[in-house]
Write a structure and sequence with these properties.
heterodimer; A: 185 residues; alpha/beta; Glutaredoxin; five-stranded mixed β-sheet; two-stranded antiparallel ribbon; 6 helices; elongated; B: 159 residues; mainly alpha; Helicase, Ruva Protein, domain 3
């Protein structure tokens, strides 16, 4: 019994040391917000189009109607990083050929119209979320945020912040490839 | 006097919540429940602030949402579950007790238990060690004799 107790402090040090080592890992981002949505079905929402914009509105059924993975981008005209991201998303949409759907979060229709007229409209569909209710359904903490939804309507990837860095673009490509692979097998 | 009043007002102002007048429900009971819930819900933008005292847009939306659900007749737990379904356990300041959080909740008690076992073992060993090193009958007699002399010496000094 006492021999076992001698090992106790060593055991405690090993457990604590392991925990501290995990905490020191530079890959770990303590500010990362865990998403409750990933690997679940996309939330229920039904948004009308932005007044005066050609793109039709967006609702839950549209996500799986495409029969392939789709990218959902939450954006707003008042959001500065969205501007930086817009160009990248437009280019990626052209290169990768995925359907890009937008949720226009807490925006005035006239501002959104102006913004899209100025920067271009890469979105196949845009839902106008003036109240921010759909944003809550998606569990977003701010704009921009981007999701990949697979062909069955399941959310498989979430990214908080603008898709502007090489890393985030690679992550998006990888998530799309994975979603396509799963649908194919 | 005026300065004191100003100081009091400043203190009162910081203690006030971010709840705006147009959000407050007419029913004081429901409003109290809404305040109670929103004190334990994390603002997802300003992460260490409850939505009750946060001025962020999302916090306001969530406060209004909580009040809407309460008016529709949801229980407190249903409202919390509604938010957890969308934002995860992360929105709760107090993590729920479930298999994934057993380590979190039980680790302090487990460590306390280990400490108690260790302390108990040390005391038991000390007791047995003291018993083994006890004095023989001869030694006890010598100690008694010495103590008696010591007492006599003291008596003589006092006298």
């Amino acid at each position: 019994m006492q021999r076992i107790l001698v090992l106790l402090p060593i055991l405690v040090v090993i457990v604590l040391g392991g925990f501290f080592l995990w905490g020191l890992n530079p890959e770990r981002d303590p500010n990362a917000i865990p998403s409750a949505l990933v690997s679940k079905q996309a939330p229920t929402f039904d948004l009308g189009p932005i007044d005066g914009v050609e793109s039709p509105g967006l609702k839950t059924a549209d996500l799986s109607a495409a029969g392939e993975p789709v990218v959902i981008n939450v954006f707003a005209s008042w959001c500065v990083p969205c501007r930086a991201e817009h160009k990248v998303l437009t280019r990626l949409t052209r290169q990768e050929g995925f359907p890009l759907y937008g949720i226009n979060y807490k925006d005035k229709p006239e501002d959104a119209r102006k913004w899209l007229a100025e920067l271009g409209n890469p979105y196949g569909r845009i839902g106008s979320d003036e109240t921010g209710r759909a944003g809550i359904e998606w569990g977003i903490s701010g704009v921009p945020e981007t999701f990949v939804v697979d062909a069955s309507g399941k959310v498989v990837w979430r990214y908080v912040g603008p898709i502007a860095t090489e890393q985030s673009q690679d992550d998006l490509r990888a998530a799309l490839a994975a979603a396509r692979g799963e649908a194919g097998s | 006097m005026r300065q004191l009043l100003a100081a009091l007002l400043i203190v009162a102002a910081t203690a006030a919540a971010a709840v705006e007048p147009d959000e407050i429900l007419d029913d004081p009971v429901l409003e109290a429940r809404a305040r109670e819930i929103s004190r334990d819900i994390r603002c997802v933008v300003c992460q260490n602030e409850p939505i009750d005292s946060s001025n962020a847009g999302v916090a306001r939306d969530l406060r209004i949402l909580i009040r809407e659900r309460l008016v529709e007749g949801d229980s407190d737990d249903e409202v919390r579950q509604y938010l957890v379904d969308r934002y995860g356990d992360y929105v709760l300041f107090k993590p729920p007790f479930k298999p994934a959080t057993y380590a979190l909740w039980l680790a302090p008690f487990a460590l306390l238990g280990l400490g108690a076992v260790a302390v108990g073992a040390v005391f038991r060993r000390r007791k047995t060690a003291a018993g083994a090193a006890g004095l023989s009958a001869d030694d006890e007699a010598r100690v008694d004799a010495l103590m008696a002399r010591y007492g006599q010496d003291n008596d003589r000094k006092d006298g």
